[in-house]
Amino acid sequence: MKILLPFQDPFNRTLDSKIMSGGTENFCKSIYENFETIPYYIPIEQIKWNQRQKKEEAQKIVDKAEEEQVDVIISNFAQAIYNSQTLIKSKIPIMFVEHCIYPIPNVIYRWNQGIKNGHSLFWVSEWQQKKYEDMAKRTNQPVIRHAGYIRPGYVKVKQKLPKKYKYECGTIGRCDNGKKPFLLKQLLKDTDIKSLVITSTTQFDKDKPYYERNQKWSDVTFDDPYDKVIKKISECKTYFSTWEGETYGLTSLEALSCGVPVILNSDKDGIHASTIIPASKEHYKVIPNKSKEELIKAIKSFENVDRKAIQEATWEKHNKEAWKKQFENCVDKTIENFKINQTMSKITPKRIDSIFLFRRYIIQWLKNLIKTRT
User: Cβ contacts of residue 66 below 8 Å, gap of 6+?
Assistant: First the structure.
């Protein structure tokens, strides 16, 4: 299997970077590490390109795929360059994997056009699918015929469990108003509960006010490499997923892989997508959005958990072999869908009429045969 992987990173990091920018980037890195993959790097500055530049770049992706004779293009980003009309005309199957909730409804039209051309789209959770269905209905668009679900990650590091935890609760998240990792600190201020925030510095002007407002907190670590992040989160008694808009929650998976039970900050409907990750209902709790009282109660409820049991169960459910098998199945489905679409598109109206006439002939022949035998 040969893959072309268009890739961008909010900090312009490459797939070899030891620092993980987010879940989508981690998924791309997992593909890069496990399969024959040709990365196609696109600088983050592309968001400022005009339409002509974006169209030219999309054509370069198609040309690169044809030049390398890849089996599939895997597109992980919702911006127009990754699912434009130019790209979806590709004669190589495209596997779209949507990790987020992209706020621009036009993306639904672009995905539907891609599917019409024989390409395939995969979600990461049913929660995410429901959000897109709601968006389609609000904007009077057809509901997307997605090809299924894909797990965006697996457990990579089997961290040795510490004998004692250093923090009662920890979280991981980019330093911005969306992920809001410092919600943990804000909810636990004026308590004696020791907490840890693992986050990033910021390069974007829109995030600087949030970053500057939260520099005062103690027990905060910035821009740690992946292995250090895993070690730090293993030192926590519990993990708090601060963002109610997670479509999967890779950081929750990482916490569980260290034997750390998770607390999920629910959306307005009392739901959080990451409930699909734990191996047991005993390994997580969902709390009302931004509830200080319920967060404290949840932290205290995990006083005597068997961390080794959580770790082992998580590893059994989310091991690399299971992830690779599912990933390969999704790629196979993408290629097969494309082949079927290409075959059907070659059937002319004249051939369709012939098929229907032949079908009618066979049905009539069978009816006559039944009559002669009765």
Answer: 91, 92
For the chain, the C-alpha Rg in angstroms (whole number) is 24
Q: What is the pTM of this model?
A: 0.88
What span, in angstroms and rounded, lies between the C-alpha atoms of 315 and 259? 10
φ and ψ of 346, to 5 deg: -90, -10
Q: Which amino acid is at 185?
A: K
3-state secondary structure the chain: CEEEEEECCCCCCCCCCCCCCCHHHHHHHHHHHHCEEEEEECCHHHHHCCHHHHHHHHHHHHHHHHHHCCCEEEECCCCHHHCCHHHHCCCCCEEEECCCCCCCCHHHHHHHHHHHCCCEEEECCHHHHHHHHHHHHHCCCCCCCCCEECCCCCCCCCCCCCCCCCECEEEECCCCCCCCCCHHHHHHCCCCCCEEEEECCCCCHHHHHHHHHCCCCCCEEECCCHHHHHHHHHCECCEEECCCCCCCCHHHHHHHHCCCCEEEECCCCCCCHHHHCCCCHHHEEEECCCCHHHHHHHHHHCCCCCHHHHHHHHHHHCCHHHHHHHHHHHHHHHHHHHHHHHHHHCCCHHHHHHHHHHHHHHHHHHHHHHHHHC
Closest CA to 236 of 214, 216, 251: 251
CA end-to-end distance (rounded Å), the chain = 55
Beta bridge partners of 97: 122
Bridge partners of 72, per DSSP, are 3
Using CA atoms, how far residue 183 sits from 290, 292, 300, 327, in Å, is 8, 10, 18, 34
For residues 109 and 9, what is the distance between their CA atoms, to the nearest angstrom?
Answer: 25
pLDDT in tens, 32-41: 999 999 999 9
What tens digit of pLDDT does each residue of 100-141 get? 999 899 999 999 999 999 999 999 999 999 999 999 999 999
- Which residue, among 206, 191, 199, has the nearest Cα to 242 in the 3D structure? 199
Stretch 338-366: mean pLDDT: 69
Tokens 């494309």 map to which residue? Answer: 338
The amino acid that residue 259 corresponds to is G
